[in-house]
């Protein structure tokens, strides 16, 4: 099982309710610079992070116990000296996100792939957590096995 936590999410939701979304006042919450989708596909979980404008060498993945940390740095674009920036709305800097992974996931076999601004992680379900069939024997079979 995959568990997500964001300690400020509830605060942002309450702030939006109190002050109202839109209406010219705006909200206190900022869009998450690292949105994700997560789903289960067969015997693995797939997590996809949107990281447009991030170079692959600027992405760090760490797993400690059951916490997966994704850290990415969006660096300023290289512009010639004679260029004057008119609008700069894209967030820059280091962003991080943590996911709490359930005990049933195999953190030793996480695979990561980055393509077209999307970081995709594949987290397999541990073998011991997969359902397995147990054979049932009858009482006559048990006596034959003991003899």
From TrEMBL:
InterPro entries in the record: A-crystallin/Hsp20_dom, HSP20-like_chaperone, Small_HSP
Domain SHSP: 27-139
Cleavable signal peptide: none
Domain of life: Bacteria
Coiled coil: none
Listed Pfam families: HSP20 (PF00011)
PANTHER family from the UniProt entry: HEAT-SHOCK PROTEIN 20 FAMILY MEMBER
Family: Belongs to the small heat shock protein (HSP20) family.
Protein name: HSP20 family protein
